[in-house]
Prior knowledge:
It is a single chain. This protein is an alpha/beta fold. Among the domains are: about 10-325, Up-down Bundle (ABC transporter transmembrane region fold), CATH 1.20.1560; about 430-505, Rossmann fold (3-Layer(aba) Sandwich), CATH 3.40.50. The protein has 23 helices and 10 strands. It has helices spanning about 10-15, 15-25, 30-60, 65-115, 120, 125-135, 140-170, 170-175, 180-215, 220-225, 230-280, 285-325, 390-395, 420-425, 440-445, 455-465, 470, 490-505, 520-535, 545-550, 570-575, 580-585, 590-595; strands at about 350-355, 370-375, 380-385, 405-410, 415, 430, 510-515, 540-545, 555-560, 565-570. It has a 6-stranded mixed beta sheet, with helices on both faces. Strand 7 (about 510-515), helix 19 and strand 8 form a beta-alpha-beta unit. Helix 3 (about 30-60) runs antiparallel to helix 4 (about 65-115) and helix 3 runs parallel beside helix 7. It is elongated and about 120 Å long. Adenosine-5'-diphosphate binds near residues 122, 387, 388, 389 and 392.
Amino acid sequence: MNAKMTVTEEDFKKKKVFSLFLSYYRPNIGLFLIDMICAFLIAGIDLAFPMISRQALQTYLPDKDYRTFFFVVGALLLAFVLRAGMQFVVSYWGHLMGANIEMQMRRDLFLHLQKQSFSFYDSSRTGSLMSRILSDLFDITELSHHGPEDIFISVVTLVGSFAALLFINAQLTIAMAIFLPLLILFTLTLRKKMSHAAMKLKETTASINSDLESSIAGVRVSKAFANEDHEANRFFRGTKNYRNARGRFYYVMSTFFSGMEFMISLLNLLAIALGGYLIMKDRMTVIDLVAFTLYISAFLSPIRKLTNFTELFQSGMAGFKRFVDLMRYEPDILNRPNAVTLDSVHGDITFRHVSFSYNQKDSSDKILSDINLIIPAGKTVAVVGPSGSGKTTLCHLIPRFYEVNEGEICIDGKDIRDIEIHSLRRNIGIVQQDVFLFPTTIMENIRYGDLSATDEEVIEAAKKAQLDTFVRALPDQYDTYVGERGLLLSGGQKQRVAIARVFLKNPPILILDEATSALDTQTEHEIQHALELLSTGRTSVVIAHRLSTIRSADKIVYLSENGIEEEGSHKELLQRSGPYSELYQIQFADDPAEGTTVSF
Ligand code: ADP
Ligand code: MG
């Protein structure tokens, strides 16, 4: 894999959650330092301003030292220009650093998810994985940028402004400090309520989203059953819940902000009253009082910042923890350290005492047990048997989509677990019943079989899959969009795209898993030819219900819940009058298209 992770899976196993969070700062350390230095200087300027202006007003003005006075004003102007520049740096580069960190986490998660096996995706919902990748990490930008900055600046400002307050007037400061615990208590309680309401709001948002998703996805069903009203009512209930949750959030938020403003006004009023009293008693100057109230505002802003931070930290860390949980989920199918690359494949496939269960923890419900099977290179083996007997499962074991529990599967005598996974899968082509098309052009969809193929090669493959004539008739030909918001292809056309992909991939081993069973007889007939062409010269495992395909196979394997019940050629199996001949009687004997041509 070319793409590298910022923080490796090894680290996720070894390190603690918080230290993992810090690890993401490492590639951004330059930006982080610039951000912190600028933030520190801004806090310094803010702290110095009232002190300097107090000095200027108190000393230079009464002395009529206008030169120095205006020099100080000029210096302050310069400081503010610098401050504006630094504010820009903090706001722009700081946020950008947060966005970098978020991007790196998201990329790591994506790479990690790509390593997971089929079983992982069997048990996870697409929607919840999407929200893991997108919204869980949504608050991380804010936390990673504002978190350290908030703490750092708050501490500096808190200490600095408190020292300044004490310096200006110790008496007044101590009198005011008595009210401080009240203020802190108020902010903490309401903040807690606010984050609780915010969490509830998030939950209702998630539920309204998933309700809407299922309603829209199922709109054809609800129309068919004339149940639109039922769906509308369900949606209305959801929107009402959502509105109510918003209402509760706004209620707490409004209480918080109005209360907070009130407290601050009260504190300022108190300073004026007490300060005024001290002035009347000639124990304080007017200028000192002005400076004092300025420092009160400076002192209060970190308190606001810190409460803000607790919320940021809660939501950001909750998302980050869910991210870490997922990152720690170990992929169950990986390359062995000494895995070899598979090239120039001959194509012999051997199953030896293979047992498999989807439930890795409890292997008592085995789908396959003690399967022994030889698929010689270049030959076609047809697998038949009742639905649910494990035919698809058997095929999925060959490219290691799932791992065998016991026994081994070998290709050219090499255990597939000792083969590098990508090279193994490059040598196997699969055509299944449902075909997934990416929402892009037909050209790109076919090119998925070999990303390095030229346009000519893609068209060549399409010709072999008998898709070319159809595509040529489209207005945009190979550039026609398919899938979402594009042209909807019929089942047969999709199947041809899948076949063209495999032609392009040109693997020595081929698996056809009921590739044509969803198609009508006519289309099936047409595609059959392309499939035959595809399987020539390749080792093929074919699961089919079509007699002509089965009959022409070199070997037929009958698979049931009890395992492989019999194997042999069509003729041999019919003579044995076992389960295959029974299936044959039921399924094919009176098929007019097939039955008439069978003679034995
Ligand atoms: P066939 O292709 O012969 O119809 P399958 O191989 O699809 O049979 O399924 C065999 C059995 O395994 C069935 O009982 C099915 O319910 C079960 N099964 C198939 N896929 C999964 C899966 N991804 N997770 C758990 N059980 C599965
Ligand atoms: Mg199947």
